[in-house]
């Protein structure tokens, strides 16, 4: 199980493009978060929990859906860590595990239209089949 957790952690970091080890745990991201009072885990805690691989509590937390993705935490961080991007990556991982973010080749014909560029369909297929 530890190996799966490590893979998930690496995948979340890759998807987000964030290096959580840059965080110096100053808490400025959380101090500026407008949803702070609504969240079980705050932006600085998200960063630490992803960095440490403690993903299960995050993935089961309602905090994932309380984040406004306003990027106030990103603007405030003195080290360029982007907590909102980590929240989005964890949220996407949860959706993918639930199977709500999946497309099969059989879904494509119904999406074809003269108004939609083929590149959009190919991009969506790549994104939603992973």
Short description:
The chain is an all-alpha fold.
Characterization of the model:
- Helix 1 (2-16) packs across helix 7 (83-98) and helix 3 crosses helix 7 (83-98).
- The model has no long low-confidence stretch (mean pLDDT 86).
- By secondary structure, the protein is an all-alpha fold.
- The protein is elongated, with a radius of gyration of 17 Å.
- It has 9 helices and no strands.
- The longest helix has 16 residues, at 83-98.
Number of strands: 0
What is the CA-CA span between the terminal residues? 20 Å
Low-pLDDT stretches are: none
Structural class: mainly alpha
Mean pLDDT: 86
> What global shape is seen?
elongated
Biggest beta sheet attributes: none
Helix and strand arrangement:
Elements: H1 2-16, H2 28-31, H3 43-52, H4 55-59, H5 63-66, H6 72-76, H7 83-98, H8 108-111, H9 118-128
List keywords for this structure.
single chain; 130 residues; mainly alpha; 9 helices; 57% helix; elongated
């Amino acid at each position: 199980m530890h190996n799966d957790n490590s893979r998930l952690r690496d995948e979340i970091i890759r998807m987000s493009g964030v290096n959580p080890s840059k965080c110096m745990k100053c808490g400025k991201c959380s101090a500026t978060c407008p949803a702070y009072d609504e969240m079980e885990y705050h932006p600085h805690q998200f960063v630490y929990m992803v960095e440490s691989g403690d993903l299960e509590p995050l993935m089961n937390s309602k905090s994932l859906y309380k984040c406004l993705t306003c990027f106030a935490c990103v603007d405030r961080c003195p080290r360029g860590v982007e907590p909102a991007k980590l929240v989005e990556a964890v949220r996407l991982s949860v959706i993918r595990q639930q199977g709500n973010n999946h497309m099969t080749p059989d879904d494509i014909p119904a999406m074809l239209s003269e108004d939609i560029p083929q590149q959009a369909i190919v991009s969506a297929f790549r994104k939603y089949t992973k």
